[in-house]
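tool_call predict_complex ligand=thymidine-5'-diphosphate
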Amino acid sequence: MSSRGKFIVIEGIDGAGTTTQAAMLAGALSERGLTCLNTREPSDGPVGVLIRSLLEKQITPLREVYGDEWAERVTLSLLFAADREDHLSRTVSPALSAGAWVVSDRYFHSTCAYQMRDRESLDWIIELHRHSLIPDITFFIDLDPKESLDRIEKRKSAEGKTEGDLFETLDQLKRIRSAYMETITRLRERGDRLEIIDGCPDKDSVHTAILRALTPLLP
Ligand code: TYD
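tool_result ok
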Protein backbone atom coordinates (compact mmCIF):
# COMPACT_ATOMS: atom_id res chain seq x y z
CA MET A 1 0.00 0.00 0.00
CA SER A 2 1.34 3.47 -0.85
CA SER A 3 2.05 5.84 2.06
CA ARG A 4 -0.13 8.89 2.55
CA GLY A 5 0.84 11.96 0.50
CA LYS A 6 1.47 15.46 1.83
CA PHE A 7 -1.02 18.31 1.72
CA ILE A 8 0.49 21.65 0.66
CA VAL A 9 -1.39 24.95 0.50
CA ILE A 10 -0.47 28.15 -1.34
CA GLU A 11 -2.01 31.38 -0.05
CA GLY A 12 -1.77 35.09 -0.82
CA ILE A 13 -3.78 38.20 -1.65
CA ASP A 14 -5.28 38.48 -5.16
CA GLY A 15 -2.49 39.06 -7.68
CA ALA A 16 0.22 37.51 -5.48
CA GLY A 17 0.58 34.56 -7.86
CA THR A 18 -0.96 31.66 -5.90
CA THR A 19 -2.31 29.96 -9.06
CA THR A 20 1.01 30.25 -10.90
CA GLN A 21 3.02 29.00 -7.93
CA ALA A 22 0.66 26.09 -7.20
CA ALA A 23 1.00 24.93 -10.83
CA MET A 24 4.80 25.33 -10.80
CA LEU A 25 5.10 23.44 -7.52
CA ALA A 26 2.85 20.60 -8.68
CA GLY A 27 4.95 20.38 -11.87
CA ALA A 28 8.21 20.24 -9.90
CA LEU A 29 6.87 17.52 -7.58
CA SER A 30 5.69 15.44 -10.55
CA GLU A 31 9.13 15.81 -12.14
CA ARG A 32 10.59 14.30 -8.97
CA GLY A 33 8.46 11.24 -9.60
CA LEU A 34 5.75 12.01 -7.03
CA THR A 35 2.11 11.60 -7.97
CA CYS A 36 0.75 15.10 -7.52
CA LEU A 37 -2.68 16.71 -7.72
CA ASN A 38 -3.00 20.45 -8.29
CA THR A 39 -6.37 21.68 -7.02
CA ARG A 40 -8.00 24.95 -5.92
CA GLU A 41 -10.60 26.70 -3.79
CA PRO A 42 -13.25 27.79 -4.51
CA SER A 43 -13.33 24.23 -5.85
CA ASP A 44 -14.88 22.92 -9.04
CA GLY A 45 -17.61 21.16 -7.02
CA PRO A 46 -21.23 22.39 -6.81
CA VAL A 47 -20.72 24.87 -3.94
CA GLY A 48 -17.49 26.18 -5.48
CA VAL A 49 -19.26 26.88 -8.76
CA LEU A 50 -21.95 28.84 -6.90
CA ILE A 51 -19.30 30.84 -5.01
CA ARG A 52 -17.44 31.74 -8.21
CA SER A 53 -20.60 33.09 -9.79
CA LEU A 54 -21.11 35.31 -6.72
CA LEU A 55 -17.49 36.54 -6.72
CA GLU A 56 -17.55 37.25 -10.44
CA LYS A 57 -20.87 39.12 -9.99
CA GLN A 58 -22.82 36.82 -12.34
CA ILE A 59 -25.24 36.56 -9.40
CA THR A 60 -25.96 39.81 -7.52
CA PRO A 61 -23.25 40.12 -4.82
CA LEU A 62 -24.69 39.47 -1.35
CA ARG A 63 -23.41 42.80 0.00
CA GLU A 64 -25.76 44.53 -2.47
CA VAL A 65 -28.69 42.30 -1.48
CA TYR A 66 -28.10 42.70 2.29
CA GLY A 67 -26.82 46.28 2.20
CA ASP A 68 -24.36 45.08 4.85
CA GLU A 69 -20.86 43.82 4.16
CA TRP A 70 -20.57 42.05 7.52
CA ALA A 71 -23.67 39.95 6.87
CA GLU A 72 -22.16 38.99 3.53
CA ARG A 73 -18.99 37.80 5.25
CA VAL A 74 -20.91 35.44 7.52
CA THR A 75 -22.80 33.86 4.62
CA LEU A 76 -19.64 33.67 2.50
CA SER A 77 -17.68 32.03 5.36
CA LEU A 78 -20.33 29.33 5.63
CA LEU A 79 -20.39 28.81 1.86
CA PHE A 80 -16.58 28.59 1.70
CA ALA A 81 -16.56 26.16 4.66
CA ALA A 82 -19.19 23.99 2.93
CA ASP A 83 -17.19 24.05 -0.31
CA ARG A 84 -14.08 23.08 1.70
CA GLU A 85 -15.74 20.02 3.23
CA ASP A 86 -16.98 19.02 -0.22
CA HIS A 87 -13.50 19.57 -1.69
CA LEU A 88 -11.84 17.54 1.08
CA SER A 89 -14.25 14.61 0.79
CA ARG A 90 -14.51 14.62 -2.98
CA THR A 91 -10.93 15.37 -4.01
CA VAL A 92 -8.24 16.01 -1.40
CA SER A 93 -8.63 13.15 1.09
CA PRO A 94 -9.03 10.37 -1.52
CA ALA A 95 -5.91 11.61 -3.35
CA LEU A 96 -3.84 11.78 -0.13
CA SER A 97 -5.00 8.28 0.88
CA ALA A 98 -3.93 6.97 -2.52
CA GLY A 99 -0.44 8.36 -1.86
CA ALA A 100 -0.65 11.49 -4.03
CA TRP A 101 0.74 14.85 -2.92
CA VAL A 102 -1.91 17.54 -3.09
CA VAL A 103 -1.17 21.21 -3.81
CA SER A 104 -4.16 23.47 -3.15
CA ASP A 105 -4.40 27.02 -4.48
CA ARG A 106 -6.07 28.47 -1.31
CA TYR A 107 -7.65 26.76 1.74
CA PHE A 108 -9.19 27.85 5.07
CA HIS A 109 -6.56 30.59 5.57
CA SER A 110 -8.33 32.45 2.74
CA THR A 111 -11.61 32.42 4.67
CA CYS A 112 -9.76 33.66 7.77
CA ALA A 113 -8.12 36.50 5.88
CA TYR A 114 -10.84 37.52 3.42
CA GLN A 115 -13.91 37.06 5.63
CA MET A 116 -12.50 38.12 9.04
CA ARG A 117 -13.82 41.33 10.55
CA ASP A 118 -12.16 41.29 13.95
CA ARG A 119 -10.52 38.92 16.40
CA GLU A 120 -13.84 37.42 17.46
CA SER A 121 -14.80 36.61 13.88
CA LEU A 122 -11.36 35.07 13.31
CA ASP A 123 -11.95 32.81 16.34
CA TRP A 124 -15.32 31.83 14.86
CA ILE A 125 -13.83 30.98 11.44
CA ILE A 126 -11.02 28.93 13.03
CA GLU A 127 -13.63 27.10 15.13
CA LEU A 128 -15.69 26.44 12.00
CA HIS A 129 -12.70 24.51 10.64
CA ARG A 130 -11.93 22.64 13.86
CA HIS A 131 -12.30 19.27 12.13
CA SER A 132 -10.79 20.25 8.79
CA LEU A 133 -7.53 18.66 7.75
CA ILE A 134 -4.49 20.77 8.73
CA PRO A 135 -2.02 21.12 5.84
CA ASP A 136 1.49 19.68 6.25
CA ILE A 137 2.75 23.10 5.20
CA THR A 138 1.22 26.38 3.97
CA PHE A 139 3.07 29.00 1.96
CA PHE A 140 1.92 32.60 2.14
CA ILE A 141 3.21 34.54 -0.86
CA ASP A 142 3.64 38.02 0.50
CA LEU A 143 3.23 40.82 -2.04
CA ASP A 144 2.76 44.53 -1.46
CA PRO A 145 -0.94 45.37 -2.17
CA LYS A 146 0.04 48.15 -4.62
CA GLU A 147 2.23 45.80 -6.65
CA SER A 148 -0.50 43.20 -6.51
CA LEU A 149 -3.10 45.67 -7.83
CA ASP A 150 -0.73 46.59 -10.70
CA ARG A 151 -0.45 42.93 -11.63
CA ILE A 152 -4.25 42.49 -11.46
CA GLU A 153 -4.80 45.54 -13.71
CA LYS A 154 -2.27 44.26 -16.27
CA ARG A 155 -3.88 40.81 -16.29
CA LYS A 156 -7.35 42.32 -16.66
CA SER A 157 -6.38 44.49 -19.62
CA ALA A 158 -4.63 41.50 -21.27
CA GLU A 159 -7.89 39.54 -20.88
CA GLY A 160 -9.98 42.51 -22.10
CA LYS A 161 -11.90 42.69 -18.78
CA THR A 162 -13.14 46.01 -17.43
CA GLU A 163 -14.63 45.01 -14.08
CA GLY A 164 -12.69 43.55 -11.15
CA ASP A 165 -13.67 40.73 -8.80
CA LEU A 166 -15.10 41.53 -5.38
CA PHE A 167 -11.80 41.97 -3.52
CA GLU A 168 -9.70 43.73 -6.16
CA THR A 169 -9.36 47.24 -4.72
CA LEU A 170 -6.35 48.68 -2.90
CA ASP A 171 -8.24 49.11 0.39
CA GLN A 172 -9.53 45.54 0.28
CA LEU A 173 -6.09 44.15 -0.57
CA LYS A 174 -4.49 46.07 2.32
CA ARG A 175 -7.15 44.83 4.72
CA ILE A 176 -6.75 41.25 3.52
CA ARG A 177 -2.94 41.30 3.76
CA SER A 178 -3.04 42.45 7.36
CA ALA A 179 -5.74 39.85 8.14
CA TYR A 180 -3.42 37.18 6.70
CA MET A 181 -0.67 38.34 9.07
CA GLU A 182 -3.02 38.06 12.04
CA THR A 183 -4.16 34.63 10.84
CA ILE A 184 -0.57 33.40 10.45
CA THR A 185 0.31 34.52 14.00
CA ARG A 186 -2.77 32.77 15.43
CA LEU A 187 -2.26 29.53 13.54
CA ARG A 188 1.46 29.38 14.35
CA GLU A 189 0.55 29.72 18.04
CA ARG A 190 -1.40 26.46 17.80
CA GLY A 191 1.49 24.77 15.96
CA ASP A 192 0.47 25.00 12.27
CA ARG A 193 3.38 25.13 9.85
CA LEU A 194 3.27 28.34 7.78
CA GLU A 195 6.07 29.88 5.72
CA ILE A 196 6.07 33.46 4.45
CA ILE A 197 7.67 33.75 1.01
CA ASP A 198 8.61 37.10 -0.54
CA GLY A 199 6.39 37.41 -3.63
CA CYS A 200 8.19 40.41 -5.09
CA PRO A 201 10.91 38.68 -7.18
CA ASP A 202 10.17 36.98 -10.51
CA LYS A 203 8.09 33.81 -10.49
CA ASP A 204 11.09 31.46 -10.88
CA SER A 205 12.76 32.94 -7.78
CA VAL A 206 9.52 32.61 -5.78
CA HIS A 207 9.24 28.99 -6.95
CA THR A 208 12.84 28.28 -5.90
CA ALA A 209 12.18 29.78 -2.45
CA ILE A 210 9.09 27.56 -2.03
CA LEU A 211 11.02 24.43 -3.06
CA ARG A 212 13.84 25.32 -0.67
CA ALA A 213 11.42 25.70 2.24
CA LEU A 214 9.76 22.40 1.28
CA THR A 215 13.02 20.41 1.26
CA PRO A 216 12.64 18.99 4.82
CA LEU A 217 9.34 17.40 3.80
CA LEU A 218 10.56 15.86 0.54
CA PRO A 219 11.27 12.11 0.43
P1 TYD B 1 -8.83 33.10 -6.88
O1 TYD B 1 -7.88 31.98 -6.59
O2 TYD B 1 -8.25 34.46 -6.94
O3 TYD B 1 -9.63 32.77 -8.22
P2 TYD B 1 -9.39 33.39 -9.67
O4 TYD B 1 -7.95 33.06 -10.02
O5 TYD B 1 -10.39 32.62 -10.49
O6 TYD B 1 -9.67 34.87 -9.58
O7 TYD B 1 -9.97 33.00 -5.75
C1 TYD B 1 -11.17 33.63 -5.88
C2 TYD B 1 -11.40 34.67 -4.81
O8 TYD B 1 -12.04 34.08 -3.68
C3 TYD B 1 -10.19 35.39 -4.28
O9 TYD B 1 -10.45 36.79 -4.35
C4 TYD B 1 -10.12 34.97 -2.83
C5 TYD B 1 -11.54 34.65 -2.50
N1 TYD B 1 -11.70 33.68 -1.39
C6 TYD B 1 -12.32 34.10 -0.22
O10 TYD B 1 -12.73 35.25 -0.08
N2 TYD B 1 -12.48 33.19 0.80
C7 TYD B 1 -12.07 31.89 0.69
O11 TYD B 1 -12.23 31.09 1.63
C8 TYD B 1 -11.45 31.48 -0.54
C9 TYD B 1 -10.99 30.06 -0.72
C10 TYD B 1 -11.28 32.41 -1.57
